[in-house]
Amino acid sequence: PLQDSDDIEDVSLFDADDDLSRRSKKSKIRHPVASFFHLFFRVSAIVVYLLCELLTSSFIACMVTIILLLSCDFWAVKNVTGRLMVGLRWWNQVDDDGRSHWVFEARKVSAQGSKTSSEAESRIFWLGLITCPMIWVIFAFSALFSFKVKWLAVVVMGVVLQGANLYGYIRCKVGSRKNLTSMATNYLGKQFLRQ
């Protein structure tokens, strides 16, 4: 007969073995395909943007390719990689009255206090989620100051799509807007009191 997992407790004989197994669980990538696609679409869109004028003279082909990559990235990050890699998800829900509500959700920690996401996946997720929109913002200023107006529309799409995911996942991570404001206020207050 099968027993519940709550009834079985795995106890190591040596603390060092326990620490080693804990470290290997934290650094192990549990969802390699999700981790790959989390970065693939983002980096591909940036690489295509940088090399597009060298590879082809067709602006339309470049624009469509970049927007398709950005759209695939938005969908993959919002619907798959955020849920698998860090246990966060967000979406818009419409009530029966027709009112729109944004829902920001975080996976609950299990009874044993362990999360199902690893530190390595979390680093990959947040690094990609924060770095790429910053690169698109740099591209936006570059296109604006070099008067490449036709590229500005493509770059704005990059900023908007990747910025929306960044905003959504930050809201999932820290909670509601009120919590975000109070968290910033508490942090600044603690810094002031330390000095």
TrEMBL record:
It is a multi-pass membrane protein. Keywords: Membrane, Transmembrane, Transmembrane helix. InterPro entries: TVP23-like. The chain crosses the membrane at residues 32-51, 57-77, 124-145, 151-170. One of its GO terms (biological process) is protein secretion. It comes from the Eukaryota. GO terms for cellular component: Golgi membrane. It is found in: Membrane. It holds the Pfam family DUF846. Belongs to the TVP23 family. This is Golgi apparatus membrane protein TVP23 homolog. It comes from Manacus vitellinus (golden-collared manakin).
